[in-house]
Specification:
The complex is a heterodimer of chains A (about 110) and B (about 120).
Chain A: E1 9-12, E2 18-23, E3 35-40, E4 47-50, E5 64-69, E6 72-77, E7 86-94, E8 98-101, E9 105-109
Chain B: E1 3-6, E2 10-12, E3 18-25, E4 34-39, E5 45-51, E6 58-60, E7 68-73, E8 78-83, E9 92-99, E10 107-110, E11 114-118
Classes of the chains: A mainly beta (about 110), B mainly beta (about 120).
Chain lengths: ~110, ~120
């Protein structure tokens, strides 16, 4: 089972918005509303920022939002801040209760 | 507070096995699935499998079937992941994580990670 496809890198200036895509298939992203997004700073443990496509855990700023269309999920970070610079990973439920991750996107705040 | 505490770093020789523990506290252990993932140095996150901490049911990624075993001991709120026949490709940080919202497949609490190094 191949990883979900994410762009290797993304960037934006402070205050701007950036969107990171996560493309799967009709057997994972397209089939389930169980897409999650994680933020990972270097050397740190990943942190959940979006679950079930668009839900934000308590404590996660409203600048982070998620959506899905067909086989592609997206994470949008609005009002970029310096501390948003990190690696972002998507994950999706897949057939037979499996789970699959994306390859990760390195977000740079210019 | 809710936390998962993993066992310490391991150095293993090729062909050996490693068993990593993940002790839960601050919540009802049997109320949340535990997932295991790994991350090789500088690489992405790879899902390995999950265990239903209530009944012990497991589900492994196809890649790991036959050489990973996940178990739990509810009496001490601890989950385990054992990986056999290690090779250098298994050098990675191994994480356990809890699914927060039931059924969401989303990990709201993570262990601190256990570095496993495979080297002759």
């Amino acid at each position: 089972q191949s990883a979900l496809t994410q762009p290797p890198s993304a960037s934006g200036s402070p205050g701007q918005s950036v969107t990171i895509s996560c493309t799967g298939t009709s057997s994972d992203v397209g089939a389930y509303n169980y897409v999650s997004w994680y933020q990972q700073h270097p050397g740190k443990v990943p942190k959940l920022i979006i679950y079930e496509v668009s839900q934000r855990p308590s404590g996660v700023p409203g600048r982070f939002s998620g959506s899905k269309s067909g086989n592609t999920a997206s994470l949008t970070v609005s009002g970029l801040q310096a501390e948003d610079e990190a690696n972002y990973y998507c994950s999706s439920s897949a057939v037979n209760y499996k789970l699959i991750f994306g390859g990760g996107t390195k977000l740079t705040v210019l | 507070q809710v936390q998962l505490v993993q066992s310490g770093a391991e150095v293993k020789k090729p062909g050996a096995s490693v068993k990593v523990s993940c002790k839960a506290s601050g919540y009802t252990f049997t109320g949340h699935y535990i997932y295991w993932v790994r991350q090789a140095p500088g690489q992405g996150i790879e899902w390995m499998g999950w265990i239903n901490t209530n009944d012990g049911d497991t589900n492994y990624a196809q890649k790991f079937q036959g050489w990973v075993t996940m178990t739990r001991d509810t009496s001490i709120s601890t989950a385990y992941m054992e990986l056999k026949r290690l090779t250098s490709d298994d050098t990675a940080m191994y994480f356990c994580a809890r699914v927060g919202v039931v059924g969401s497949r989303a990990f709201d609490v993570w262990g601190q990670g256990t570095m496993v190094t495979v080297s002759s």
